[in-house]
Amino acid sequence: MIPYGRQSISEADIAAVEEVLRSDFLTQGQAIPRFEKAVSHYCGAEHGVAVNSATSALHIACLALGVGPGDLVWTSATTFVASANCARYCGAEVDFVDIDPTTFNMSVEALEGKLLEAETEGRLPKVVIPVHMCGQSADMREIGALAERYGFRVIEDASHAIGGSYRNRNVGACEFSDICVFSFHPVKIVTTGEGGLATTNNPDFAQKMQLLRSHGVTRQPKLLSAENPPPWYYEQIDLGFNYRMTDIQAALGTSQIERLNEFVDKRHAIADRYDDMLGDLPVVMPRRLSNRRSALHLYVIRLETHKIEPSHRDVFEALRAGGIGVNLHYMPVYLQPDFRKLGFEPGLCPEAEKYANDAISIPMYPALGEDDQREVVEVLTRILSHGDGSGSEVEHQT
């Protein structure tokens, strides 16, 4: 099967990990600060805080911004559940903003309308978390302007978007946000196996996140309450977590960052070929905007279901049966059973629901060759022309 995503591991990556395995430190050594510096320098941010996952980064980012019980956090309806769960971990309530149907990102128009209504009700959010879907930045300048007007903080969920840019600055520079979060899961642009990182230009936020990722424990003299403590002394000064990244992961990430621009360039070349190959099919291809550069973590097509006989499910299952590892990113978060328990119902975000009924992520990763791309398109063409890839009944796959 041709997967929808796949990591790219080089001999240099393996050597970097091997070097750590032969060193004195497997965790809390020098590889982590090197990785943090490499990412923050690439992004153009003052600080980077590495953790064991993007979910952990989102959680401590919310805590660093003071999110707690009684607060309200908004995020995009079309995202992975972690973008919303991070607020719930803090005891806050969560709500959702509909998407722009052309970019799949948080709609600025929908956000502004929701803010106007919330202001009259006295229920403005403390934090808004726009998600850079598929690797293309949301409209951060406009969202930042709304943040100034309505007094909320902004966390960019850039789990898909390292290597992308917005208005000639790299995603992660935090020009219009307080904190930006990246993911390094194996199918993302670069990988640390599992891992995440938060960038920020605020030293207080960075210090808070550094503390929270390691149990809330510190040995830093300036943070200790004791005067002239003994050399073994440490204090827990906050309720933190074990969210640390290992040096093994950080070494892999630092090696991968050296190829980040190469990875993104290859993804754009693949997207260009898809754009050409898919031009005659009843699908809507992703739109790449001129004032930003997508990292192209995903290539999502939308079926023109009114023009084809097979349903969204039929096409999806036939692609998988034909050896094409497609996926859906994502169903609206608020329709998940756990969120339905909170009172959310269908109809909250119509564009997000339409998207979930016709979107399919097709294979996209740097090593995807032209022959494999042609196979993807040929299988899709047969399905759209004949109802399935072979003329026979398609098996339902779980």
Descriptive overview:
With 398 residues, the protein is an alpha/beta fold. Helix content is 36%, strand content 14%. The chain has 13 helices and 15 strands. It has helices at 11-21, 31-43, 54-64, 82-89, 108-121, 140-150, 203-212, 247-257, 260-277, 312-321, 337-340, 350-356, 370-386, and strands at residues 47-51, 72-76, 93-97, 127-129, 153-157, 165-166, 169-170, 179-183, 196-200, 217-218, 235-236, 283-284, 292-293, 299-303, 359-362. The chain has a seven-stranded mixed β-sheet, with helices on both faces. Strand 2, helix 4 (82-89) and strand 3 (93-97) form a beta-alpha-beta unit. The chain is globular, with a radius of gyration of 22 Å. The chain starts with 10 loop residues before the first helix and ends in a 12-residue tail after the last helix. Mean pLDDT is 95; it is low at 389-398.
Produce a short descriptive summary:
With 398 residues, this protein is of the alpha/beta class. It contains 13 helices and 15 strands.
Question: Which features would summarize this protein structure in a list?
Answer:
alpha/beta, 398 residues, seven-stranded mixed β-sheet, disordered C terminus, 14% strand, single chain, 15 strands
What's the number of helices? Answer: 13
Helix content: 25-40%
Shape: globular
Give the topology string: H per helix, E per strand: HHEHEHEHEHEEEEEHEEHHEEEHHHEH
Give the strand order of the largest sheet, numbering strands 1, 2, ... along the chain: 1-9-8-5-4-2-3
